[in-house]
Amino acid sequence: KIQVASDSKAESETSLQEANSDIASITASRKADREENLFQISESHSAQESMTNAINILTKFYKDSGMIEKASWENLLQKRSDPIVAPSARPPLEEPATWTVHPYTGVLDPTHEGHGVIAVLESLNAQFMEMEAKYKQAEETNQVEFDAQLTVLTTLKSDLVQEIKNFVAEIERLQGQVNEAEAEHQRKSEELESIEHYLL
């Protein structure tokens, strides 16, 4: 019986080592996945900010150039005027001929889908938004799966620890019985020897 309990204890200890190894493995894997997900979320968010800034700058530029029509309310906004300076303090400026004769109008419609620069940036921005959403979803899913696996392994580990304690207690109990039986056997052997010695 002691050997059976010892063998069972050894099996449980092996299973416990495997459970600990599995916990360490999934924890390391989860950490790596989390770092990757958070990195991708951060990168896609930064890219969206850059795209949005570029779109805003280009939109303003093209509206100011007349390439994109301004909304009616935008024409009502007052522009900042240069500070008033006495005429004698500055020489009159002449605009270069290219500014008045051939103002910049652009080659292509910047909002045209497929090749307009603003349309391309908006498309890229949408892709980065999708990427961010994808990695956020992956992070949530990975965490749920990790929590489920960890719960199973932690429960298994706890059960194995208790099982090992039970086997240790059983081995100690059986060993105690063996020790008592051996002591009783020794005592009776000594009594028998005394009786035999007395009779002879």
Automatic annotation (TrEMBL):
<feature type="coiled-coil region">
    <location>
        <begin position="121"/>
        <end position="198"/>
    </location>
</feature>
<keyword id="KW-0175">Coiled coil</keyword>
<feature type="compositionally biased region" description="Polar residues">
    <location>
        <begin position="13"/>
        <end position="28"/>
    </location>
</feature>
<feature type="region of interest" description="Disordered">
    <location>
        <begin position="1"/>
        <end position="39"/>
    </location>
</feature>
<protein>
    <submittedName>
        <fullName>Uncharacterized protein</fullName>
    </submittedName>
</protein>
